[in-house]
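Researcher: First entry.
Model:
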Amino acid sequence: MKRTTIFAIMILGLIPATELFGGDWPQFRYDAGRTAASEEKLAEQLHLQWIREFGAPRPAFPLEVRLGFDASYEPVVAGETMFVPSMVNDSVTALSTATGAEQWRFFAEGPVRFAPVVWRGKVYFASDDGYLYCLSADDAELLWKFRGLPAGMQDRKLLGHGRLISLYPVRGGPVFVDGVIYFAAGLWPGDGVFVHALDAKSGRPIWSNTDSDHIP
């Protein structure tokens, strides 16, 4: 059976995870601009420290090359912890960057296809179940979750390539900017694609496009 390996190469002194530092990689491609560039410099020689194996990815559209957005795992790092989302077992797993040991694992109710966001001791991630989750980075305590489908609208489940998912899954990674988390839920404009901006600390909605029910 195919397996996918995630590995970490440690080259820096380790630092607490309560704040973000130059060595962190707190969201997909590093920042909200998706620049994939950090000011941190790599050592001239790298040394493999540990290896963890995960099941082969199960993408949402396995036969569509142009839709290969979830063809691999997308971990992020803050301080001494790596956070790994899984579209295979619907989870986010926290691993020690020093040893690779599992610290905790949290299960959603659908595949987790995109990189989480880490900010001030909190982990934010979205799932095919249609929710954005906020966990404590220390122990995976659920602090709050927010449904992408507006209140008053009825969700329903359907099979998506053999997986039970919401009719309004979150099919894009959450984005963090200046204390605000942005995400969207929904696939088809005819059914509605709902974009939300939430206060990252409380989960309180700041704005959404729910009045229009679609993205123009």
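Researcher: Second entry.
Model:
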Amino acid sequence: MQEATVAAPPVVALPNPPAAPVTVTAPPPVVAAAPTPQHTLVGILDLGDRSAAMFEVAGAVQSIALGKPIGSSGWLIAKIKQQEVTLKRGAETKVVLVGQKF
């Protein structure tokens, strides 16, 4: 009796599955901290139409009239009364009392 030989099925190499897409997320941008207040309202000169506010700007006290800018801050003096000054920068408004920094 002769033995029958059974051939093994051929080995078929399967292709590698496609690599999963890799998503790289950039870290969030570094946000600078709010600037430290560098201007101080040190006094008010109540002179009616010619009133002025005394601000310490860059280490020196300056008399700044109504409607004028305070250093390079972008803030303008909008109103001066007794112990406070109202400042404007674009649509922003801020009230600063004598002795306060901004």
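Model: Note on the second entry: Strands lie at 39-45, 52-57, 60-65, 76-81, 84-89, 92-97.
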